[in-house]
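Backbones bend. Our protein:
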Amino acid sequence: MSAISLIEVTAKINDRKSLEGITLEIGAGEQWALVGANGSGKSSLGRLLCNALPVISGNCRVPARSAFVAFEKVDEILEIERYNDDSDFLGYVTEGTPVTKFILSGTAADEAQLADLAQQLGFTAILERGLKFLSTGEMRKVLICKALLQEPELLVLDEPFDGLDQHSCAALRNLITRCIEHGIRVILLLNRFSEILPGTTHIAYVKDCGIFRSGSKDEMLNSEPLRRFHAFHYTLPDALPEIDSGHSAPRLPAEVPLIEMKDAVVTYGEKRVLNRVNWTVKSGEHWKISGPNGSGKSTLLSLVSGDNSQAYANDISLFGRKRGTGETVWDIKKRIGLVSTSLQQEYRVGATVKVVVISGFFDSIGMYAQYSPRQQEIAHEWLELLHMEKRSGDSFRDLSYGEQRLVLLARAMVKQPDLLILDEPCQGLDDVNREMVLKLVDHLGRTGNTQILYVTHHPEDSIPCITNSMELVPAEDGGYTASVRSPVWT
């Protein structure tokens, strides 16, 4: 295992940002984690270690064979899938690129090696499924598997545990340990100190596109100055921003349920995803939704948000009106705010942060109508609550993954909708922003008129105002069904 050496390296991130003065010596046998807040530059540092950033000055010695796995790579892959999708032309939904074909392309590995690795990571069942039908967690497993089959000397994993259920996280930790034992150097890029693995020997804290402090794991974890720097300091607002009454839907009567599903079924081809789901969300209720990777959580929420056409084939009522009785998708969306990985992947139009937030008033991706000065003020107030007001004029595309997540959260909350759908909203967020979001969402649930549907794989990310829980569990005859129970935040 060769040493890695960066001496006073400056490397270009984009036209406006660079890594500056990076000095990092990683000796043979050392296992490092790079920790930092959203937008700190740690993902760019990971790319530099994989020789994927142009070096402007300094001495840089990194492994010849390396692999980098990050959220942003998923967006690139799915963009290619969309471009090659012939479903609309053919009149039926095509499978797209199968997982097996995608993983093996560009590698010297065979199907036997893939099958062995897929078994270790627990995704044998999806090997013949199309990429576009994978959940966020399943897609992360696929990318890690493809990277490992390329036999890299260095594997850099950017937030590898985000989007994975607890069983998958345990399997990935074991796999990382085996990689290290087989001579692969693994460097983790993390937002959470709690996700640092026991085998980690050194930590570097990244801030403002430079290394703020580095040292042995014990030295760094016991550093009082670093703990104070990374601590959570957030004061809840006295009041939430006002609602733009001109663009808000009339409030529903208290006796009208927001959601009623009766024996809902969703299938793709011969695969049954949801199987006889019965679920009612009454006025005033907030819900936690859980289930393993691939159980259909995002599919369930797409039935609610109006983004799944199979809602019309089911007995589903939203906001007191049965689907398929003349309502439009926009009638549904005007009552809903949404944060999800799929929305983040779809928001590809060029727009500033301010415009992305304002688009929440119009439920659009991009802006195609004139917005009012009051809407602009409300959008700015939400950005202030999330400490993103200084990025208001920046391009949404130039933000880090976690920063984009914060902007989409402001977009979802800007109209204070009847229903706020949060599909893993803290994915990609650092400890400080995660705590801020959890407290703000709880504040919204306690003081506003918005009801919350919240999906998470992290039981420690509790929101006290949520007192109802629905878990998707395997059904006896295939797919997943709903189990309603009292939530347990641990």
